[in-house]
Structures are given as structure tokens and as C-alpha cells.
Amino acid sequence: xxxxxxxxxxxxxxxxxxxxxxxxxxxxxxxxxxxxxxxxxxxxxxxxxxxxxxxxxxxxxxxxxxxxxxxxxxxxxxxxxxxxxxxxxxxxxxxxxxxxxxxxxxxxxxxxxxxxxxxxxxxxxxxxxxxxxxxxxxxxxxxxxxxxxxxxxxxxxxxxxxxxxxxxxxxxxxxxxxxxxxxxxxxxxxxxxxxxxxxxxxxxxxxxxxxxxxxxxxxxxxxxxxxxxxxxxxxxxxxxxxxxxxxxxxxxxxxxxxxxxxxxxxxxxxxxxxxxxxxxxxxxxxxxxxxxxxxxxxxxxxxxxxxxxxxxxxxxxxxxxxxxxxxxxxxxxxxxxxxxxxxxxxxxxxxxxxxxxxxxxxxxxxxxxxxxxxxxxxxxxxxxxxxxxxxxxxxxxxxxxxxxxxxxxxxxx
Length: 413
Ligand SMILES: [Zn+2]
Prior knowledge:
The protein is of the alpha+beta class. The protein has one domain. Helix content is 30%, strand content 10%. The chain has eleven helices and ten strands. A four-stranded antiparallel sheet has the order 7-8-9-10. Helix 6 crosses helix 9. The radius of gyration is 21 Å and the shape is globular. The termini are far apart. The site of zinc ion has 5 residues, from helix 9 and helix 10.
């Protein structure tokens, strides 16, 4: 039994709620060249009241908070208006995901595998019927019963429906073949090599991506992901640690954590932000965060208690970030260092010192004081993930199709 000694990972999506930044009238004038008082923030429409659930007593009203990190390199270097005017914040029009995005020829082997697991019907992927049925758009690891979250666990549907493109994107990223070599290499512990650089008194190891992953190895990997669905639970909770500005999620083995709903968003004083663009960023980020945490969960399920290995000569052994950064060729985080995403994304080379968290091995030889260059992420790159065209490009070009473009604008810290 591959899970015989495993512990149950719990994936928790965290949202920070502590905030020190609020914008005064004077600061607003400095930022936007006007002394006009801030207009009332635009908030999402209030949520309809939800039925109480004694079984899932995890709802708690939290107060909306304003936030703007003026020390963020891109805010400091360019200002919000510049980011807005150069396409780093808003899209020209509201994006609409293609309903079946991603489910072309490229993804049918993964769907054929899940259909086989779910029904026992062995469908040869080469003869797989297209188009893929909607029930296969989302991996069962993201199904309702996996969520210790009232809004998603109940039969109340609006939140679930709004989040379907997130589960769909997360499913596609999780089963994406271009990353299968990385995951197979990560899970084949016998191939890991001692780095001879102990960390916290323990040996550390590094691994390579497996080359030319065979069909049966791919099925074995998908089987491990499939089996993870029975032991992983998702929940949302407040983030209260004031010193951690970049935590989007955490995977905790066998931990009991009181879950809380995310805070409502408030867009500080900057009312030029398009809500659809902001929601799109959140959708992308939630999908990527879920996959990031599931990579940790895969490791924990098989090698609980062991430090995560380095990938090749990377200086920081954090599997979730490594996986995420191999996809997009860098680490994407929110401008203004907030888990909610009002001001756009930045991308940096990874691992930048800002993203190093405790507990994960770091190479003694690495220089923690290297400057980091921040690039704003062009917004028009994001909605492509929710189109069939994007996934057709993945089929044609492989991993480079995921690469996040970097503009000429950048700021250093
Ligand atoms: Zn991580």
C-alpha cells in the first residue's frame, strides 16, 4: 500500500486579514496627484445569507480591510496609475472562459484514466470520444466533499458555480503531461542524490525530472493523484502571522485548524480597478495555489516527515514553488504583497529571497542578499489560460506555452 505509512495532508488556503496599510487623504494625493478624498471602495455585491450549519461552524464575519503596500517595488517604482495605463491591472473587456477549455486531444489520456477509475470502463485514449463530457472537466480531488468550507460544502451553488473554472484550470495543471517528469522524479526517492549539504542536521537530497515518461508511469502518477483525493481536505482560514506576506496556502499533515471564511475584499482608495480583472487574477492564483499545495501533499503522502528535496541545483527545496515556477518560468505573486489581488501580479526569478520561508532546506552556498528584479505581469496573458487556444498551444509547444511574458518595465529591490 503506497499510503500505508502516510499521514493525511490537509490543504489550507490562507488569507491574510491583518493589515497595517490604509491610505490617508495626503497619501492619496501623493499617489494620484489629486487631493480629492477617496471614493467609497467598490466591493463585491454582498453575499446572500447562508444557512447555518452546526456541522461546519466555520463561517465568521470578518471586517473588510484596506491595504496598499507602498513599499512594494512596483508600487514604489511606477505607481498604480502607471500600472493601470500599461495593461498590468485591467483588461479591456470582461473575459469569458471557454466552457470546455483545455479539453481537447491533449488532455484525453488523463480523462480516459479518470473515466477508467470512476467507472471501470477502460477506454483507449486514442479512441476517446470527443468532446469530453462536462463531468470530467474537474478532478474529483476538488469535489464538494473535499471542502471544509460552508459555502462550497453545502448544496448552495453560486459560489461553486463561480469557482468551476478554477477547479477546471487546477485539474488541467495537475494532470499536465509536461510536468509529469518533474513529479515522477520527485516521487522516485531511490533516484535522489545526497547533496552533501546538510540542513538542520539532516541530509538533503536533489532530484532530476524523469525523461521520456512512459504511458504506464504516467498512469501510475495519475493514480497517486487519484488516491490523494481520499485523504486531502481543503479549507480556508484567516492568516494572522504578521511577518508572512506571501503565504497563499499551506499543507499540514494531520493538523486540526479552525477554518474561517476569507475576508471580503476592499480595494483601498484606488477605484479604477476592474473587478472582473481582479477576480480573474484570484481565479488563476487559487488554481495555481491548489496545485502548489497538492504537490506538497503528494510528497507528504509518500514521505511524511522527510525534508523536501532540491530540484537539480535550485537553492531552495520547496516543491510547491519549484513546480509552480517551472510552469511559468518564475514566481508570480501579488503586487502589494497581498493574498487578495487588487493591483495585479508581479513575477520574479525564483527563488527570490522574499519567497524563502522557514523549514525548507536552503543551500548554505546561496546568497540571501541578491537583489530581486520584479516585473509586472501583463494582464492580457491571464485570460488565455481559460481558452482552448491556450491548451492547443500547450499541445503544440509544450512547457514554453506556459511561460509568463516579462515586459520591459521592472523594478529592483
Ligand atoms: Zn509551498
